[in-house]
Design brief:
It is built from 14 helices and 23 strands. By secondary structure, it is α/β, with parallel strands linked by helices. It folds into 2 domains: about 290 residues, 3-Layer(aba) Sandwich (Carbamate kinase), CATH 3.40.1160; about 140 residues, Aminopeptidase. Strands 17-18-19-20-21-23-22 form a 7-stranded mixed β-sheet. Strands 2-1-13-15-16-14 form a 6-stranded mixed β-sheet, sandwiched between helices. β11 and β12 form a beta hairpin. It starts with a helix and ends with a strand.
Length: about 450
């Protein structure tokens, strides 16, 4: 082996070790289109998923079944009607749809068992009917109402790979045919997945086939290796008249990012080793859509004060935050930022600056229902970045009940004497807050 090839192998091994450690105990959701089952590399694809599972990554599989459902219906002389891209599942068709969905699951479970992996299928999805939309009765076609996070997490912690078919059940036990794409998004949101993979016949986004903004990176072969959420949104807006599968997956990727998924990968399942190449490489082999941690963070306005105070109130009542009135917030609103999702404020924080080059990070509050989005961490990172831009030399926090969290965020315990003089004078000795600081 020559020196160049040896160096390449060494770099690859380093990348694998780096990423395998980084993704330990993280959840990856794989939505795999049915045509991949018929590909010659399908057994190797499952072997690679088993390998990820064995390295400590939590793997969840959502198989697509559209083409298999079509095959089974045709075998029995049935044919579905489709409206607005959605299959109408009749009472007559539903048994065949269920048969096809679980047949697809079996095509995953059998090879995985050969790789010494325990894959399980279960009743983890609550669904309800779509009903009548624009005069069309979708009958037994449904949508995801709830994914049982507790049971899925037990499966993952127990060393199993859950496989979720495109069937959900109502509280009364009625089965519904649901979208595998929508199910994958719901699973990601419920489990706080780190990554979502759409594995299909698409080779990723070819920048030569679409109008894209100038800042989008393109490789010599035209492939777009990565796009931010804002770049992907711009691509959709620039290509509104185009209807194809790649843009469908871009839309799904954007929806996933809005639900808290940090990275969505669009990869070609016909390529040998595609999963490992996409994960354990800085360049990857498909197209990655990634969230900008700070995209949803903006400065607070006076009109946000009531919502922010409502967000803080439970933490104030618990003694975690110092008491602040709405009047206090109005006086200092320019120091605050908020995390906004779909027009609603779900997190906030403040950076108060002092003349000695220090800044106090304060009033970090998050909506507990959105804990899986790590909003507090993102707010903190944003405020630290703002402090650096302001050329502050140091930031500090006062806390009574979140010392471990700030320590994990890189803050170190500090003495009262290191604080700005004004802060020392106003320090509440009865509250006995601990002081943590971070040098910039």
């Amino acid at each position: 082996m020559d020196e160049v090839r040896l160096r390449e192998h060494v770099e690859l091994i380093r990348e694998v070790f780096y990423y395998s450690h980084r993704f330990q105990d993280k959840t990856f959701v794989f939505k795999i289109d049915y045509p991949m089952v018929m590909e010659k590399h399908f057994p190797n694809l499952l072997r690679d998923l088993a390998l990820l599972h064995q390295t400590g990554i939590h793997v969840v599989i959502v198989p697509g079944a559209k083409e298999r459902i079509d095959e089974v219906l045709k075998e029995y002389g049935e044919e579905s009607q489709v409206e607005a891209g959605i299959r109408i599942s009749t009472a007559e068709d539903l048994p065949f749809i269920k048969m096809a969905a679980f047949d697809v699951v079996n095509k995953f479970m059998t090879p995985l068992s050969g790789f010494k992996v325990n894959a399980l299928v279960g009743n983890w999805v609550r669904a309800r009917g779509l009903g009548v939309i624009n005069g069309v009765d979708y009958q037994f076609t449904g949508k995801v109402e709830k994914v049982n996070a507790e049971l899925l997490e037990q499966m993952l912690d127990g060393g199993h790979i859950p496989i979720l078919p495109c069937i959900g059940w109502s509280s009364a036990g009625q089965a519904y045919n649901i979208s595998s794409d929508d199910l994958a998004l719901a699973v990601c949101e419920t489990l706080g997945a780190e990554k979502l993979f759409f594995i299909s016949e698409s080779e990723g986004i070819d920048g030569r086939g679409y109008d894209v903004t100038p800042d989008v990176e393109r490789l010599p072969d035209g492939r777009v290796p990565r796009m931010s959420v804002s770049q992907a949104q711009a691509l959709l807006e620039l290509n509104q008249g185009v209807q194809d599968v790649d843009l469908h997956y871009i839309k799904q990727a954007l929806a996933a990012c809005k639900k808290g998924v940090e990275r969505v990968h669009l990869v070609d399942g016909r390529t040998e080793g595609v999963i490992l190449k996409e994960i354990f490489s800085n360049i990857g082999i498909g197209t990655m859509i990634y969230s900008d941690d700070y995209e949803s963070i903006r400065s607070m306005t006076p009109g946000d004060v009531s919502d922010v105070h409502r967000l803080m109130k439970p933490l104030i009542d618990q003694g975690i935050l110092v008491n602040r009135t709405e009047e206090d917030l109005i006086e200092t609103y320019h120091d605050y930022v908020v995390y906004e999702v779909d027009g609603a404020i779900h997190a906030c924080g403040a950076l108060h600056t002092y003349q000695d080059g220090q800044g106090e990070i304060a009033a970090i509050a998050t909506n507990p229902s959105y804990a899986h989005l790590s909003m507090g961490k993102k707010i903190l990172g944003f405020l630290v970045s703002r402090a650096i831009k302001l050329e502050l030399r140091r930031v500090f926090v006062l806390t009574t009940q979140t010392t471990d969290w700030f320590h994990q965020m890189g803050f170190k315990e500090a003495d009262l004497e290191t604080l700005p003089e004004k802060k020392q004078v106003n320090y509440n000795r009865q509250r006995k807050s601990k002081i943590f600081a971070k040098e910039l």
